[in-house]
Structure formats: C-alpha cells, structure tokens
C-alpha cells in the first residue's frame, strides 16, 4: 500500500474516532446547522493564516474557536432565534472567506482542496496533529459525558441538579469547533457536517444506549473512511465525497432495522 494512502487512512480514522461521539450530540441536540456554520467559517481561518503567515491548520482552529465563542455570546443576547442566527453566519462566513482568499492570495490556495477535502495530500505532521487533538477532545468529552447527557435530556432539570449548563454547552461548541478544524483536511468544508451527522444518524437506529451509539458512530465513520479511500484508490473517485458516500451507504442499510434508541 502506498505511503500516502497509509497517511490518509491514519488521518481519516483519527477524525472518525472523535467525530462519532460528537456527532451523536449534534444529532441529539439538533446542531447540524451549527456544524455547517463552523465549517464555513474555516475559510476565514485560512485567510487569517495567509495574512499572518502562520500554520493554516492552527489558523483554522483559531477561527473556528473564535466563531464558536461569538455564537455563544450572540445566543445569550437572544435578539434572534438560534437557527436564524446560524443561517446568517453560515452563508455569510462562507462567502466572505471565498472572497477574502481570492483577494488576499489569488491562485495560491487550492480552493477545491479546502471545499471537498484533500486527504490524499495528508502529511505525517497532519496525522500526528489529528490524533493529538482527537485524544484531547475525547478526554474532555469523557470528563463531561454525564453533564452533557443531562443538558441534552433537559437543561432546566440539569440546572436544578447543579450542572453549569452554559459552561457545558460552551465546552461542547468548542470541542465541535476543534474537530471541524481538523476534519477539514479530510473531507473539506462542504462535507464536514456529513461526516459528523450521517454516521451518528445511522448508529442511532442500531444502538440501545448513548454510549453504544457513540461507539457505533465511530465504527461506521471508520468503515466509511476505509471504503471511501478504497474507492478513491481503485476507481479514482474524489476521496472526500467518496468517504461521505460510504457513510450514506451505511445509513441506508441502517434503515432496514427499526429504530431502537
């Protein structure tokens, strides 16, 4: 197997492992549009990295985290409904990012790679970064698992039980922002939410408990990555979309079973 394919597989499996549990919370809390907003804002991070001449992955992560905090602040003001706010920011940040990149660095950035992923160009440093960030996110997620479940079931009840709802919700958004920043390398800006949502949606129909759903979602994501890379290698499909199609195939198969959870 070529070295570049092994690196791509390592990166994809790292993203799938951490995207599974976070995708479950995105499904439970109906946060799919939040993922789109974070993903679209990543292009602004790319522009920031080009302007400051810093590592683009770090710049993307910083941009996603900054927008996540801005969303938290705007939600607290309650001037607009959350879905309306996300809709405005999602498309505005994507358009602004595309325009900014074309003005700041015309011809220097492979926009198709950012939009649809460039996993076959993954380097060893990218794989290490993905696994380190993934381990950090999974560690924080395990620590906050019970409070996150509590606010997902009923926020007011969780608040009465002493859970710091705002802090836990903010932590979840920041974790999602980090994962979206590292996943952009794998499936691209336009397909990140699919990798988060589709495996979790498929796992929901196959699981009895939240923990089982999280593990199943990671497994489905890993299978989608493996199948997508195989299709890319043997049939010359674009890798990012092929991975998403693999996850979609798993979801279609899951529809054959009745929902359990």
Write the H/E string, N to C: HHHHHHHHHHHH
What's the Cα radius of gyration? Answer: 18 Å
CATH class: Mainly Alpha
CATH topology: ABC transporter involved in vitamin B12 uptake, BtuC
Q: Major beta sheet, specifics?
A: none
- Helix and strand content put the structural class at mainly alpha
Shape: globular
β-strand percent reads under 5%
Measure the end-to-end span: 39 Å
Organism: Gilvimarinus algae
Protein name: High-affinity zinc uptake system membrane protein ZnuB
Function: Involved in the high-affinity zinc uptake transport system.
Subcellular location: Cell membrane
Task: Give the helix/strand layout.
Layout: H1 3-28, H2 32-52, H3 56-77, H4 82-104, H5 111-116, H6 124-143, H7 145-153, H8 155-160, H9 165-187, H10 192-204, H11 210-235, H12 239-254
Helix pairs in contact: 1-6, 1-9, 1-10, 1-11, 2-3, 2-4, 2-9, 2-10, 3-9, 6-9, 10-11, 10-12, 11-12
What does this protein structure show overall?
The chain has a single domain, classed as ABC transporter involved in vitamin B12 uptake, BtuC (Orthogonal Bundle), CATH 1.10.3470.10. The longest helix is centred in the N-terminal third of the chain and has 26 residues, at 3-28. The N and C termini lie far apart (39 Å). The protein has twelve helices and no strands. With 261 residues, it is mostly helical. The mean pLDDT is 86. Helices cover 81% and strands 0% of the residues.
């Amino acid at each position: 197997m070529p070295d570049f394919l092994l690196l791509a597989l390592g990166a994809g499996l790292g993203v799938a492992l951490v995207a599974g549990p976070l995708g479950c919370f995105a499904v439970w809390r109906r946060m799919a549009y939040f993922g789109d907003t974070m993903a679209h804002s990543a292009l602004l991070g790319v522009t920031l990295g080009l302007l400051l001449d810093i590592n683009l992955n770090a710049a993307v992560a910083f941009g996603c985290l900054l927008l996540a905090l801005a969303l938290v602040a705007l939600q607290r003001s309650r001037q607009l409904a959350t879905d309306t706010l996300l809709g405005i920011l999602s498309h505005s940040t994507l358009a602004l990012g595309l325009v900014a990149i074309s003005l700041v660095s015309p011809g220097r950035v492979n926009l198709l790679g950012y939009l649809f992923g460039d996993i076959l160009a993954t380097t060893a440093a990218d794989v290490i970064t993905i696994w380190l960030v993934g381990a950090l996110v999974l560690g924080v997620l395990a620590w906050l698992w019970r409070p996150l479940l509590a606010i997902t079931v009923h926020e007011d009840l969780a608040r009465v039980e002493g859970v710091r709802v705002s802090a836990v919700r903010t932590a979840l958004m920041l974790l999602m922002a980090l994962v979206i920043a590292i996943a952009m390398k794998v499936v691209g800006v336009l397909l990140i939410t699919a990798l988060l949502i589709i495996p979790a949606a498929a796992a929901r129909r196959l699981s009895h408990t939240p923990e089982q759903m999280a593990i199943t979602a990671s497994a489905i994501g890993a299978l989608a990555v493996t199948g997508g890379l195989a299709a890319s290698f043997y049939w010359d499909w674009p890798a990012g979309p092929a991975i998403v199609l693999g996850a979609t195939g798993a979801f279609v198969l899951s529809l054959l079973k009745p929902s359990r959870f």
